[in-house]
TrEMBL record, chain A:
This protein's name: DsbE family thiol:disulfide interchange protein
This protein's record includes keyword Electron transport: no
PANTHER family with a match to the protein in the record: THIOL:DISULFIDE INTERCHANGE PROTEIN DSBE
InterPro entries: Periplasmic_diS_OxRdtase_DsbE, Redoxin, Thioredoxin-like_sf, Thioredoxin_domain, Thioredoxin_ResA/DsbE_sf
Main location: other
Cited PROSITE patterns: THIOREDOXIN_2
Disulfide bond keyword on record: yes
GO biological process, one term: cytochrome complex assembly
Pfam families: Redoxin
SUPFAM superfamilies in the cross-refs: Thioredoxin-like
Automatic annotation (TrEMBL), chain B:
Keyword tags: Cytochrome c-type biogenesis, Heme, Iron, Membrane, Metal-binding, Signal, Transmembrane, Transmembrane helix
UniProt name for this protein: Cytochrome c-type biogenesis protein
Summary of the function given for this chain in its UniProt record: Possible subunit of a heme lyase.
Presence of the UniProt keyword Mitochondrion in the record: no
Organism: Rhodovarius crocodyli
A GO biological-process term: cytochrome complex assembly
InterPro entries named among the record's database cross-references: C-type_cytochrome_biogenesis, CcmH/CycL/Ccl2/NrfF_N, CcmH/CycL/NrfF/Ccl2_sf
UniProt keyword Signal, yes or no: yes
Gene Ontology MF, one: metal ion binding
Family: Belongs to the CcmH/CycL/Ccl2/NrfF family.
Any one GO CC term of the record: plasma membrane
Signal peptide range in chain numbering: 1-16
Domain CcmH/CycL/Ccl2/NrfF N-terminal: 5-143
Residues annotated as transmembrane: 101-121
């Protein structure tokens, strides 16, 4: 066996292990800051118009519900956020939604499989980041959007096309690295 | 004890049955619904079909399949409805497309790679050792003779 092939034989497994280690390290650091989720699935609706739907407002609160027509021909991009009062990651992302709200980004909330009093208590206690707040108690409209868990956040551009979907909480990292550049791009 | 363990291994896999209230009264229609559902991935548990899953979303999708069957839609229409909303991932048997070509081609590629390696290794195998020359034979005989 030549010297070169011996070196290759010795180096190949080490190189593979090193590459695997680096990949694994990236995955772990992504898991930690929320930018990588091994269970996340890309949305089938990406770059497509928002689906057909109509949602009533969450009962006994002032914000209106919304329908597909409310997401077409907008002055600026809108976030559609599926959430529930029983959802723990929704609490994690709530400060980021409040920050976006203070910056004037319109967020349309869809309260998923929840009770209206619980939903109202959630926003009364933690603050309300929404400009519209609709109820999807049966969860059928969520299926139209391809939602498979809460929270899920969609970025709808001014023409009503879905440009981005984030399954899971919008962490500070996701907000800064993914969402804010997109909001500027589609502004 | 050992027999019991073997028997346990033989036990048929249990499928989570849909709630009685969700089952279609017509057994043939219910069987069709289950056939469709077994090919649909539960997006929450991901390793299971919606027929095997207890997740809320899986139950909703089982209901939708049954509603659409009763409304007269066929299997293709129902699968298309789910595929349009959740993409290839929801089909436990993904369709062949540009995006899934690598997935489907992997077994063939792996086999081809294996055959290629075999051929290359064969070709590189050391040439057969030539027979001993007369001089070498003599030297060997001499060595054998010395005690």
């Amino acid at each position: 066996m030549s010297k070169l092939s011996r070196r290759v034989l010795l180096g190949a497994p080490l190189g593979l292990a090193a590459a695997g280690g680096v990949g694994f390290w990236y995955m772990l650091s992504g898991l930690q800051d929320g930018s990588y989720d091994p269970r996340s699935v890309p949305s089938a609706l990406l770059n497509r118009p928002v689906p057909e739907f109509t949602l009533n407002p969450v009962a006994e609160q002032p914000l209106p519900g919304f329908a597909r027509a409310d997401l077409l021909n907008l002055p600026r991009p809108v976030l559609v956020n599926f959430w529930a009062s029983w959802c723990v990651p929704c609490i994690i992302e709530h400060p980021q939604l409040m920050a976006l709200h203070r910056e004037g980004v319109p967020i349309f909330g869809v309260n998923y499989k929840d009770r209206a009093p619980d939903a109202r208590a959630f926003v009364e206690r933690r603050g309300n980041p929404y400009t519209r707040l609709a109820a999807d108690e049966p969860g059928r409209v969520a299926i139209e959007w391809g939602v498979y868990g809460v929270p899920e956040t969609y970025l709808v551009d001014r023409q009503g096309l879905i440009r981005w979907r984030w399954p899971g909480p919008v962490t500070p990292e996701v907000l800064e690295q993914d969402l804010k550049p997109l909001l500027r791009r589609y502004a | 004890m050992r027999w019991l363990a073997l028997l346990a291994l033989w036990a048929l896999p249990a499928f989570a049955q849909p709630l009685p209230a969700d089952r279609l009264p017509n057994p043939a229609a219910e069987a069709r619904a289950q056939t469709i559902g077994r090919e649909i991935r539960c997006m929450v548990c991901q390793g299971q079909s919606i027929e095997d899953s207890d997740a809320d979303l899986a139950r909703d999708l089982r209901r939708i399949i049954r509603e659409k069957l009763v409304a007269g839609q066929d299997e293709g229409q129902i699968r298309e409805f789910l595929h349009a909303r959740y993409g290839d991932f929801i089909l436990l048997r993904p369709p062949f497309s540009a995006a899934t070509a690598l997935l489907w081609a992997t077994p063939v590629l792996a086999l081809g790679f294996g055959i290629l390696m075999l051929v290359l290794l064969r070709r590189r195998a050391a040439p057969p050792v030539p027979a001993l020359s007369a001089e070498e034979e003599a030297a060997l005989a001499k060595l054998k003779d010395t005690p």
